[in-house]
Specification:
By secondary structure, this protein is an alpha+beta fold. It has 2 helices and 2 strands. InterPro entries: WH-like_DNA-bd_sf (IPR036388), WH_DNA-bd_sf (IPR036390).
Length: about 55
């Protein structure tokens, strides 16, 4: 999902979504990858592993 899709589905502001994704990425809870349809966009998905060192 893109940040815009997440913001739309959760009804959160795009800024809040970006901040949350940044924090989740810092804990290795989400994975970023470029969109093949639109290289300007980044897709986010849950990470396959959980890093429990930041509890």
């Amino acid at each position: 999902m893109t940040t815009a899709q997440i913001a739309d589905r959760t009804r959160l502001s795009p800024r809040t979504v970006r901040n949350a994704l940044s924090r989740l990425d810092g804990r290795n809870l989400v994975r970023e990858r470029p969109s093949f349809r639109d290289a300007r966009k980044t897709l986010y998905e849950p990470s396959a592993t959980l890093d429990t060192t930041h509890e």
